[in-house]
Amino acid sequence: MYNLPQPPYFLIVVGLLISLSCGFVFAKLIKQLVQDWSTNPSTCNIVSMRGLTLQLPYLGISTGALIFLSSSLQLFGFTNLVAYSICLPLTVATGVVVWIQLSKILDKMEQGIKKES
Known about the structure:
Layout: H1 9-39, H2 46-49, H3 52-74, H4 80-116
Helix pairs in contact: 1-3, 3-4
């Protein structure tokens, strides 16, 4: 008798909660950094914005998305290996593209500071 494993409902919820909580922290950090920059652009170091301060919540968002997406695929009967094999490259590629875009925006902010000086 073949018995299908139960889908990981718990992991779906955990992945979603990780992404949402890290996304909330990431949004607050971005708002605070932009607010600091707008009030005093000469003392705000944009290079430090890209450091560990933003990378940790961003990695949390990506990790939560990976867990959520792969667990969701397992609802449709995919095995762990297949689900993670599909979702890992998708999550990494999307995360890299978004991080590159964020870096370009921060570069433009920094160029604006240099032009004003």
